[in-house]
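Much of what follows relies on a compact textual record of a protein's fold. A complete example follows; check for yourself that the lines match position by position.
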Amino acid sequence: MCENRGVANGASPDSSVVHELAASLRAALIVIVIAVAASGCSRSSHGAPEKDAGFGVDVTIGERLDAPPVSFRADVVPILEARCAFASCHGDRTAAHGVFLGRGAPQDAHDGLVGVVSARYRGQVLVKPFDSGGSFVMRKIDGTLAGLSCGDACGAPMPKKNPPLAARERLVVARWIAQGAKDD
């Protein structure tokens, strides 16, 4: 790459060689920076890890919860309806285990979650606006129940007998709670 052009018997290299060398080094540095940045880009467009995390993992660690904005009706309700609102789980008012998340009733689902103390696990607020880590629902879907006042009696992570929500879905719910758990 760098030849001895312009250098004779210990003389200093001419400025064209120095400029050529500097340009080559800049190009190499740019390639290295791009490669390093690309190797750390294993995140989806939502900021959640590409690989889904299982139960027991707080997906909010290292994530911004204030952005992007999350809408309860547009973003959270479809997740609840697809993953929680089954007749045998939280989709039937009589079999909802105290928490109804049924289809076609977003206002009822919101009102039954936000600021409501669990009927089954006293002292646990289902959704605490602006506090995803302190919201029992978030702890249930993450499976991070250790250390709660209900102890081993907190029940199973949700959804019960099904795979955990995808990290992207869990992050949407966490963002909604952290952004105030509004019904919008």
Remarks:
- The chain has a mean pLDDT of 74.
- The chain has two domains: 12-41, 72-178.
- Residues 72-178 form one domain.
- The CA atoms of residues 29 and 35 lie 10 Å apart.
